[in-house]
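#onboarding

Welcome to the new folks! Below is a worked example of what a typical request in this channel looks like: someone posts a single protein sequence, and someone else replies with the predicted structure as tokens. Don't worry about understanding the tokens yet, we'll cover that in week two.

Example request:
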Amino acid sequence: MSLRNQLDLAVEISGLGPASLNDYFPLFPEKLAEFWAASKARLECWSRQCQTYAGPSEKSLDTEVDSLAILPVVNEILITEPLTRVWAAAVSAIEPANTDLQGEPVVRDALQRHLTARGWALRFIARLAISCPEIIENLHSDCRRLERWTDLLVARWIGCGSRIHEFAPNPGRAEDFHQEFSTSPGDVEHWWRVAFRSITSGMDVMNIPDEVNAEQNRRIEKSILASLGRHVTRDTPPPRTPCGEELDFAFTDIEGWLEAALNPTADDPRAIL
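Example response:
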């Protein structure tokens, strides 16, 4: 199954937004524990898979077979990171309203484990740069796009709790997004919905690979959905249009859209949004 499910769920979570906190929470602590356990199990899978191709530090991946074999694991580590970050931000933002919930240490630990795996992935990318330059160039491009999307998704929760910006790949950019959207004229919620729809449109044209550890990914997704209790009861990942609003345009470049949206010109059709 495609890793798209993990990205869709990250957008779904931020699509709820701070205004829905009282409707969707408190969370179920036992489901947060399941999230942590599933995240730990997935990290162990990644560790075993990476060690298969690691070897001594001086060893290089000098065959095409080795290079192509490790890429699915690298892709999974990087593409699932946004969900880990966004869920950590959302849970931490909920904490002030739920004094009995001890979720922040759980999600922070899960994120720290994921960042450990990210380190493994980046080392493999560095080693693959010589043997697969075109593949790595595309991977770098996807990483930059994912990081920008994640900054925007995390920005949705800034202001709901302290240190939320720390969950973004680029905390400063996330804070800038939050500030820009919070001070935008008109319906702020509409601006957020347009932004999230833009991310979804970007995912539609992105070449998202299949997953490696499907069982652990499903456990993580189901634990998150179950954490939302009776308000989210679906057993499958959320649809690709979480905001429930069909727009008459589809932006495939989130960076270009944000530049136009935050600094629209009079003759830009996006200025009317």
